[in-house]
Structure formats: C-alpha cells, structure tokens
Amino acid sequence: MGDPRVTVVMSTNRVSPYLPEALQSVKDQSFADWELIILDNGSPDPAGVRDAAAAVPGATVVQESGHGVSIPLNHGAALARGEFVTFLDDDDVWLPDRLTRLVAALDGDPTAGAAYSSIDAIDEHGQRHGPHFVANGETHRELLSGRTPFPNLVGFLYRRVEFLRVGGFNPALHYAEDTDLTFRLLQYSNVVGLPEVLTLYRRHQTNTTHGDPTVVHDWARRMIGMQLWGAEQHPDPDVLTDVRANLAALDARDAADSVGEGLYRLRHGRISGATRILARAVRLDARASAHEAVRRVRNRTRRTSEG
After folding, report:
1. 208 pLDDT more than 80
2. Range of the domain at 99
3. Burial of 41 (0-12, 13-18, 19+ CB in 10 A)
4. Residue 302 in 3-state DSSP?
C-alpha cells in the first residue's frame, strides 16, 4: 500500500478523560485514507497512552521528553507520510465528514496551503455551547490584517509541504505558536475556509490555553513583532501594511479586555490593581479604551434600570 493522504498528529502529556472520544472521532471519519501519530510528550502514564492508542488500528506512539507543545507537533509533522497533515488535541472531537470536506477543499484549490472550517465549543459533557470560530467568507487580506479573527489551529488541514516550507511551529513561543504559524502561512500561501462546523473544541478548566488574557495578549504582541521583522523583507509591501494593521487590531482588543478587567476590579474594591490595568488599556489604545468603557457602563446602567 502507498502512503496515506492524511497524517493526523496528536501530542499529549496525560491520559485525558476525553482521549478515547477524541480517538474514536478519528476512527469514525468518512475519509479512511489516514494515519495517526501520537506523541507521548512525557505523560506520567505511558502505558495508558499506548492502551488508548491500541483502539485505533495502525496508530503509532512516539515517546517525547516533555517538551513544550511545538517540538512534538513538529516532530509528528516530520514523521508524517501524508500529503496533508492535521492536528488533533486529546480532548477535542471531529465530526465524521471533517477530513472528507477539508481534503476536497484542498484538492479543489491547488494554490491553497491549508483549509479550515467553523468550530463549535463543547463542555466537559460534550454539550455544544455555540460557535468557537465561524468561517464566513473572510479574504486572505482580512485575515492577515486582523479585520477578522484567525482560524483556530484545531480547525486546520495543512498541505504538508506548505507547513514545512514556512517552518512549522516556533518552539521559542509559549503562547500564540499556532497564530505565529498562521501568520507565516498567510504571507506565502492562500487558505480556504469552509463555513460548516467540522470540529468541536472542548472547553474545561484544564485547557492548556486557559489563563490570564493579558499574558496571552503580551505573547501575541511579541509574536507579531517577529512577524513585522519578516514582513519588512517581504517582496509584497502590502504584507507589511497588513501585519502592522494586525498589531493595531490586537492592541484595540487588548485595551477593551483590559478595560473590562479594570472595571471588574473597581467593583470589587481592588483599586490599585484596577488603576494599573486601566492605565495599560489607555496606553495600548486610548480610543478603544474609551469606547469600551462607555459601552460597558451603558450596558450595566440599562441592566440595572431593567432589573
């Protein structure tokens, strides 16, 4: 038999209670020409990971040494035999036609380096809680400039040669490594978005992305700073314009989030902390800060009058 068309890469540092469901969703795919590589990234129960993987015929388990998330994912992509590569978290779920639809999208557009879909959020019990990401016909420039949010990593299927061409994930980043990859991909390749929901993203208290949003914003800002340096060398001057616009959009979002956190601290009597974070908001984007403060005060006033 020849190489599979799709390589599914999973990195895990635990035996997640959701792992069997995640693996079952791979087995249930209507597109059957895939291989699965599981990177055991220093889990305390390697036998448990192997036992879970044994439920998927042909799955390969590779031992890692407890690196950050980027190194095992890059290792999995390097080991991949498929024309396409995609990444599955150990707590997420794929709908049965995910691979069928995304492979068809890339087959239909040879210029595209990746395809992605809409994503719904689910809770610990698998109940849906609305959209996590909505693909809505966004253009390449709308994504690169930050006028629309980036697709989430869990929704992507990559053409492996394009994933490798832009360097994969950056191991130096502790946050935003997926956004960094998408930035580099968008500078050199087209992407295709499908509006239907094909992936279910699980939200729970042990998500690796669960944390202080200001910390995440600061990591994203460092990452975009690196993109700016690269964009200055890009032969297309519009790329630099778009990356600068994306940084401005990040500052506006961060300012709005900081206003919300600052007002929350004020309401709970945490004056010094509120002062610091509100000053951060104004420093990032004074106009966005003022707009968000007015919006929140008006909404709170309306809710109070209605109650």
Report:
1. no
2. 6-202
3. buried
4. helix
Structure token pair of residue 250: 């990040």
The answer on 157 and 229 residing in a single domain is: no
Instruction: Give the pLDDT band of residue 15 (cuts 50, 70, 90).
Output: confident
Where does a domain end: 167, 183, 202?
Answer: 202
**pLDDT of 1:** 61
What is the three-class DSSP state of 186?
Answer: helix
Q: Final residue of a domain: which of 202, 236, 271?
A: 202
| Residue 35, token pair as written in the block | 């291989």
Ramachandran quadrant class, 237 (left: phi over 0; alpha: psi -120 to 50; beta: rest): alpha
Write out pLDDT tens, residues 150-181: 999 999 999 999 999 999 999 988 778 999 99
One domain, residues 198 and 268: no
Does the structure show a pLDDT above 60 at 258? yes
245 shares a domain with 176: no
DSSP secondary structure letter of residue 150: P
CA 64 to chain centre: 22
| Mean pLDDT value across the chain | 91
Burial class (CB in 10 A: 0-12, 13-18, 19+), 220: buried
Asked if the model's pLDDT at residue 251 lies above 50, the reply is yes
**Which class for 8: exposed (0-12), middle (13-18), buried (19 or more C-beta within 10 A)?**
buried
Note the residue count of the chain.
Answer: 307
- 292 and 232 in a common domain: yes
- 3-state SS class at 14: coil
The tokens of 221 are what? 């800002």
Mapped onto helix, strand or coil, the DSSP state of residue 39 is strand
